[in-house]
């Protein structure tokens, strides 16, 4: 006798996570996606913000080879403070980016004068 919770092996249980700006695409487990998305949806007011943070967390998990649920546990331990969550994600994303394009900094980084004049625009 079948149950409602029985998995159908003929159905694909993955979700495509993509970011058109960075040309990033990954197929993830739908259960993990739902957990991450529902957490960010409870924190942020719009679904677009929750979706963007969800994609970012899966990208961080892929780049750092850390399970996404481990990163989510870190986020949940910080509570639902939007500023602290944004700061944590900026930390992880800055480790994957060039040092000249850091996220979360209001002041521009001023390069050394002699180095800057040798760089052509």
Cα-to-Cα separation, first versus last residue? 69 Å
Percent helix range: 40-55%
Give the class from helix and strand content and strand pairing: mainly alpha
Shape: globular
Q: H/E order of the elements? A: EEHHHHH
**Order of strands in the sheet with most strands:** 1-2
What radius of gyration results from the CA coordinates? 19 Å
Give the rounded overall mean pLDDT: 75
Low-confidence stretches: none
Q: In this structure, how is the largest beta sheet organized?
A: 2 strands, antiparallel
The number of strands is 2
Number of continuous helical runs: 5
Domain unit count: 1
Beta-strand portion reads 5-15%
Fold topology:
Elements: E1 14-19, E2 24-29, H1 30-43, H2 47-64, H3 68-77, H4 82-96, H5 113-118
Helix pairs in contact: 1-2, 2-4
Describe the fold and architecture.
By secondary structure, the chain is mainly α. It has one domain (14-98). Helices cover 52% and strands 10% of the residues. It has five helices and two strands; from the N terminus they run ββααααα. It has helices spanning 30-43, 47-64, 68-77, 82-96, 113-118; strands at 14-19, 24-29. The chain has a two-stranded antiparallel ribbon with strand order 1-2. A hairpin with a 4-residue loop joins strand 1 (14-19) and strand 2 (24-29). Helix 1 packs across helix 2 and helix 2 (47-64) packs across helix 4. The longest helix is centred in the middle third of the chain and has 18 residues, at 47-64. The radius of gyration is 19 Å and the shape is globular. It starts with 13 loop residues before the first strand and ends with a helix. The model has no long low-confidence stretch (mean pLDDT 75).
């Amino acid at each position: 006798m079948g149950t409602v919770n029985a998995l159908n092996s003929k159905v694909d249980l993955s979700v495509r996570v993509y970011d058109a700006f960075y040309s990033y695409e990954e197929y993830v487990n739908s259960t993990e996606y739902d957990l991450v998305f529902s957490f960010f949806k409870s924190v942020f007011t719009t679904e677009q913000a929750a979706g963007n943070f969800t994609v970012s967390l899966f990208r961080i998990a892929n780049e750092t080879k850390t399970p996404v649920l481990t990163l989510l546990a870190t986020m949940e331990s910080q509570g639902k403070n939007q500023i602290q969550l944004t700061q944590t994600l900026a930390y992880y994303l800055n480790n994957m980016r060039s040092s000249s394009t850091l996220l979360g900094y209001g002041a521009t980084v001023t390069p050394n004068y002699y180095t800057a004049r040798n760089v052509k625009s």
